[in-house]
Amino acid sequence: MEERRENENVEDFDDSQYEAAINEWEAQFSSEDRLKLYNQQYMTSKEEILHKLDLHIRHIERGIANGDDDPTYVTAKINFLRKFKEKVEKTTLFKHLEDWWSYEYSLSSRGAVLYLVHARGVLVDFNMSITCSHDTKMKVIEFPAQILTVDEYAKSIGVKSGAVRQWIRRAKIRSAFKQGQEWRIPELSSPIKRGYIDTKYAWTEKLTDAPEGYKYLSESSSVSIHQDMDDKKYYELWVSAPNGGSSNVYRLTEAEREKLELYLISKPEVISESDHHTYRKSEGDLP
């Protein structure tokens, strides 16, 4: 790979100049250059996965030492990651991957999944960091977290079951979901925090039983909810258009927002995107 010239100050470019600078920058990299960077930055072996999990665990442990999060929650998360790491260690993986293949893992309140993915559309940014999309994604390991009843979850965090049920009704526990007629809560659910936290929900299966007044959800695949900072009793609901057009925006009261979120979190096929994190790089990209 040839030596690259010093970066220009791209903040001084207008749109056309910026696009031209990107094209000029991208043109410097051959396919071999991109593949070399890809293999350097993405997880392509079991050893790199295990190293990344070690980094992940140490990152959370530092949070405990700094008092950054609830000790019960982070301890459960660390114990889960250690068990997931043991599962990876015991699983037979490819010793060498073909070009443009790598591993990634996702972590949510419901557990961890290790994927084998194939990259396409690989780009190199001005910091020499690779970004890419994937055209193939295969599950290699699925490692579920323990799912608790309301009573079990309440006991695990030292509160009464009634408080947990109220949190669910107010959509404070977005990782909760319905199993039959009963609520279930994953052991890795994030602790309750003060105030409203903006969120995005997404789903891949058509929602056919949306409550009265929310039938537009059946023609969408995601919604974002944002609290109005000027009047916190109201919320903006951004509903994705069915064919990728501009989102439709609705204004909700507190009661309407709670009703909508209670419906969404009850559906196992609906995920709160803030609850799912994907880790691709050998280093970095930790929460």
Could you give a quick summary of the protein structure above?
Helix content is 33%, strand content 26%. A hairpin with a 2-residue loop joins strand 5 (177-179) and strand 6 (182-186). It contains 7 helices and 12 strands.
Characterization of the model:
With 287 residues, the protein is α+β, with helices and mostly antiparallel strands. Helix content is 33%, strand content 26%. β2 and β3 form a beta hairpin. The protein is globular. Residues 2-7 have low confidence and may be disordered.
Q: What integer value in Å does the Rg equal? A: 22 Å
Shape: globular
The rounded distance between the terminal residues' Cα atoms is 31 Å
- Total E-strand runs: 12
Measured as a percent range, the helix fraction is: 25-40%
Q: Spans with pLDDT under 50 lasting ≥5 residues?
A: 2-7
Order of helices and strands: HHHHEEEEHHEEEEEEHEE
Largest sheet: spatial strand order: 10-9-8-7-11
Structural class category:
alpha+beta
Largest sheet: 5 strands, antiparallel
Total helix count? 7
- Strand content of the residues, in percent? 25-35%
User: What is the average per-residue confidence, as pLDDT, rounded to a whole number?
Assistant: 88
